[in-house]
Amino acid sequence: MEYRTISVVNSTPRGDDRMSNQFSLDGASNREVTTDEEIALAFDMFLSQLNRAICIEQLFDRISVFARNFDCRWIAYGPPAQLQDPHRQNGGKRRVASNYPLEWQEYCVKKGYDKIDPSVKTSRFHSAAFRWSEVYTEPSTTDSELRVFDEAAQFGLRSGVTIPLHGPWGNFSTMSFARTERCDLGNSAISYLQLAAFYYHIKVIGCLELSGDHFPRLSAREKECILWVAKGKSSWSIGNIIGISPNTVDFHVKNVMRKLETGSRTVAALKAARLGIIEP
């Protein structure tokens, strides 16, 4: 697996000067290209189409189209972190949906950024939507978390907003909307996106309940192999650890990739973890 090589952005000084260029506030007030009336009409149409959607894929398509009204090309939804839930069994089953650049998703796994996502950490303690620039300038944000934002910008995710979606027992999902432009979304746009995320979240829950929350079934050996892939082990190393040949490891990993409909073992490991099939 080859990863795109990018240069690490120099660390930004703490204090008032720590704002990175990708979070320029110039033009932060409403940058929407449509009028208020057109946005309201688009939101009504979004709700109508959402109600006619019959599967999670269609729901994701609907909210993706609506987000483009605010120049949000990239969106991601999922419960990547949660607190203790006494009603969960076997680690729980979790859904994730994202159209983030594949290169960025793979790079995050390689660098371990999926485990230190600053927007997820912030969502634990906030119920309202927040701009990424607000997290970036928060004194408690660590240098490692700043690096996540800086390097995300190198892949085209230069500004964004995250909406926490809290549920019972401390569980929560997040919906993030990202732009290629280096300016923040206005308050009106964020309000619409927060409403859209809420309705989308409710519909996803409904779809999961109707479907019985079914996920691809992996064999015990497939789970074991993809778990070691998630920990960064090669087929040769995995074979030595669990006592099978590298070719047999590849066989099981390819089965996981097929079942999870992914094109690489790295993305398969990431998806398996986010679905709750494995817990690295």
Strand order of the largest sheet: 2-1-5-4-3
Tally of structural domains: 2
Mean pLDDT: 81
Uncertain spans: 1-33, 80-95
Order of helices and strands: HHEEHHEHHEEHHHHH
Structural class: alpha+beta
What is the CATH homologous superfamily assignment of the largest domain? Answer: Transcription factor LuxR-like, autoinducer-binding domain
CATH topology group of the largest domain: Beta-Lactamase
Query: What amount of the residues lies in strands?
Result: 5-15%
CATH class of the largest domain: Alpha Beta
Oligomer class: single chain
Shape: globular
Largest pleated sheet: 5 strands, antiparallel
Q: Can you count the beta strands? A: 5
Question: Care to describe what's here?
Answer:
This protein has 280 residues and is of the alpha+beta class. The chain has a 5-stranded antiparallel beta sheet with strand order 2-1-5-4-3. It has 2 domains: 21-211, Beta-Lactamase, CATH 3.30.450.80; 220-274, Arc Repressor Mutant, subunit A, CATH 1.10.10. The chain has 11 helices and 5 strands. The chain has helices at 36-52, 56-67, 102-111, 118-123, 132-136, 143-154, 187-211, 220-230, 235-242, 246-260, 265-274; strands at residues 74-78, 97-98, 130-131, 159-166, 172-179. One of its GO terms (molecular function) is DNA binding. InterPro entries: Sig_transdc_resp-reg_C-effctor, TF_LuxR_autoind-bd_dom, TF_LuxR_autoind-bd_dom_sf, Tscrpt_reg_LuxR_C, WH-like_DNA-bd_sf. Residues 211-276 form the HTH luxR-type domain. This is HTH luxR-type domain-containing protein.
Architecture blueprint of SSEs:
Elements: H1 36-52, H2 56-67, E1 74-78, E2 97-98, H3 102-111, H4 118-123, E3 130-131, H5 132-136, H6 143-154, E4 159-166, E5 172-179, H7 187-211, H8 220-230, H9 235-242, H10 246-260, H11 265-274
Antiparallel strand pairs: 1-2, 1-5, 3-4, 4-5
Helix pairs in contact: 1-2, 1-7, 2-7, 8-10, 8-11, 9-10, 10-11
